[in-house]
Amino acid sequence: MNRWYLQDETFVRKGKQFGMPFWQAHAVYLYNKTLFQKYGVPLPDNENWTWNNLLDAAQKLTKPGETFGIQMGFGFEFSWLNFLRSAGEDYVNKERTRTTLNTPGAVEVMQWLADLVLKHKVHPAPTDTSSLGAGNWWNLGKIGVRLSGTGILGQTLTAKPDFEWDMFVTPKSPKTGKRAITANENPMVVTSSTKSPEGAYKLALFFAEKSSQDMVGKFRINMPSLKQSAADPTGWLSTPPAMMKLSLEQLKHAGTLSFHLNWLQWYNETTNQLLPAFRGEMSVKEACDKASQIGDTLLRGA
């Protein structure tokens, strides 16, 4: 199994393996190089950039009604959790028995993220679907920095945008000097109730081996879990973007989504409780308190 990038918690339960790795979906930072150059903004510095540099660039790249400096999803995966963990915080404790979104450090991080929308206005609001017109704003060249999962690489290549774009490493927290991103292993799992265990096993193995993994990389569906395929310069690491090798660098800073038995409902509910803060309907502290309260209730029922 050491031939693959692995997250055992997605397919190992009580010491028993129920599947094989398929792809790694982890956070990547893309930037519109053409837009940076148009507005005279220094390109991302992979060694030294912090959140402060990210915000400064986003402010310079934002032109009301024309562009937003940064865009990410309103959720933890690929987005909020990267910043929480860079700052030494998290959304659940190590034992996965307590939601930790209402600690002073976590509230501070979530306030910084909400400020991108409400204070600095460099990020579209959750309800904003039209201020820059119709269509995918990243593909149309209206977003300076796009934070998303690895799947956006294939989507961008398919769209064939008319601007130059590239990738940079997740910036460091200015307080801790640390970097962090989320990564999610999407395995092919065989249930214990299958009527054809041998056939199901062989199919899961087929998806994990080189021929399938090479196709995952070639079409940039997500990053292949097979290390050999992920390191293929003619497949996953082919260009554009020019700095595709940074997708492997990103994994050095990756952590799982801390799955537990009630994770999906817990994740959705805690996310929903935080969204009003990004709409300016309640304070970040109040939203974090509510998210933690509901999250703890769901964890007790796991």
Helix-strand blueprint:
Layout: E1 12-13, E2 16-17, E3 19-32, H1 33-38, H2 51-61, E4 68-71, H3 76-86, H4 104-118, E5 143-149, H5 151-159, E6 165-168, E7 181-189, H6 197-208, H7 210-218, E8 223-224, H8 227-230, H9 246-251, E9 254-255, H10 263-278, H11 284-300
Parallel strand pairs: 4-5, 7-9
Antiparallel strand pairs: 1-2, 3-5, 3-6, 3-7, 3-8
Q: How many separate helices?
A: 11
Q: What is the global morphology?
A: globular
Major pleated sheet: 7 strands, mixed
What are the secondary-structure elements, in order, as H or E? EEEHHEHHEHEEHHEHHEHH
Portion of residues in helices?
25-40%
Strand-residue proportion = 15-25%
Radius of gyration: 20 Å
Distance between the termini: 30 Å
Low-confidence stretches: none
Mean pLDDT across every amino acid position: 97
> What's the total count of β strands?
9
